[in-house]
Hints:
This protein is mostly helical. The protein has helices at 6-30, 36-65, 78-84. The chain has one domain (6-84). It is elongated.
Amino acid sequence: MAADNGHDREIFTRITTMVEDERRLREDLAAGRIDDATEHQRLGELESALDQCWDLLRQRRAKSEFGETPDDARVRSASQVEGYQS
């Protein structure tokens, strides 16, 4: 595995924040502070953003592994990233 650097840590921090947001959404739904439709919409947005972060991290690691510059990795569109998982 490639050594962790500042950019990778930033991506992990974003991922951690989004996972915490996801937990709060589920708590808000259980407590009746939001409805199912709101939770579903917000979870969908979070899941897309999480997929993009994980994809970016994988790109960075692959570039590093093959002697390329990890900073050349770019965030891909949600539709492109989600297409990989189909």
